[in-house]
TrEMBL record:
This is Deoxyhypusine hydroxylase. It comes from [Myrmecia] bisecta. It comes from the Eukaryota. HAMAP family: Deoxyhypusine_hydroxylase. Fe cation 1 binds at residues 61-62, 94-95.
């Protein structure tokens, strides 16, 4: 379960008002959302559920992600409705499925099974991963195994042991015939290993067929914050034929790395023809500006 804190009800009310105000900028909404994610109160939960009606698909997907990271079982019904809604953007449906996997109760199994063969490949693969994640953590295989990750995210799969040789992890990650669950485990193990050799192995997987896998690779490269990944992430961001969810994660990863070259790349794509990519660059630049300001955490305190 993610760590949450108590907060003054008036602060939560102010945050909710900002979150749902149509005049609030996308960047400010992100700050508010990250504040609410860390607050225990039911009112924070309710505000996040209301934000799933936001006009931005990028923001709706982030709300679903945050509900999963909170491992908030009270969100099961609304996440299931999002997953079922075929008129919803596939990236948002994917994130709802992943959130159900992160929450991981037995009740999530039946909700996910109906979508393991969804016509949208990214949604189907997400639900397959989520089912396998729940089954893994309910099995003896997960018993007494320490978490080798220094990252605080609740990942879609457990990592393979970090002691696994890098060449073996690379081979699994690049194997188009391997289960996506095993490829994800290899990916997270490479992240946990770190270093240029791991980054190079991860970058090679941008040639994979699965957009879902590639988007997660971009995400973990952002977590690693290794400047060695900038060239490969630039190529992904600049490729207008690449899936929007992959380009979106590449933009956010560049923002996490945050050097001068990344800054220029993000500025160049703030008007990208794909709204999800353009919005991702705008938010990434805001996060980068916030980090460079020396402030402690990318949140909104609720004050004006």
């Amino acid at each position: 379960m993610a760590v949450t804190v108590e907060a003054d009800p008036q602060v939560v009310a102010a945050l909710r008002q900002k979150l749902l105000d149509p005049s609030t900028s996308l960047q400010r909404k992100y700050r508010v959302l990250f504040s609410l994610r860390n607050i225990k109160a039911k009112e924070a939960h309710d505000a996040m559920l209301a934000a799933l009606q936001d006009e931005s698909a990028l923001f709706r997907h982030e709300v679903a992600y945050c509900l999963g990271q909170r491992q908030d079982a009270a969100a099961l019904d609304i996440l299931t409705r999002v997953l079922k809604d075929t008129s919803e953007h596939p990236m948002v449906r994917h994130e709802a499925g992943e959130a159900l996997g992160a929450i991981g109760t037995v009740d999530c199994l039946t909700r996910l099974q109906d979508f393991a063969d969804d016509p949208c490949l990214e949604v189907a693969e997400t639900c397959q991963l989520a089912l396998q994640r729940i089954e893994y953590y309910n099995s003896q295989a997960a018993a007494h195994k320490p978490d080798e990750s220094r990252y605080l995210s609740i990942d879609p799969t457990p990592a393979a042991p970090a002691s696994t040789p890098t060449a073996e992890l690379r081979a699994t990650l690049l194997d188009e015939h391997a289960r996506i669950f095993d490829r994800y485990r290899a990916m997270f193990a490479l992240r946990n290993q770190g270093g240029h050799e791991a980054v190079e192995a991860l970058g090679q997987s941008f040639g994979a067929r699965s957009a879902l896998l590639k988007h997660e690779v971009a995400y973990v490269l952002g977590q690693m914050q290794d400047a060695h990944a900038v060239d490969m992430l630039r190529a992904v961001l600049q490729d207008g034929t690449e899936h929007a969810m992959v380009r979106h994660e590449a933009a956010e990863a560049l923002g996490s790395i945050g050097d001068a070259e990344c800054l220029e790349l993000l500025k160049q794509h703030c008007k990208d023809p794909e709204p999800i990519v353009a919005d991702s660059c705008v938010v990434a630049l805001d996060m980068l500006e916030f980090e460079n300001s020396g402030q402690f955490e990318y949140v909104d305190t609720g004050s004006t």
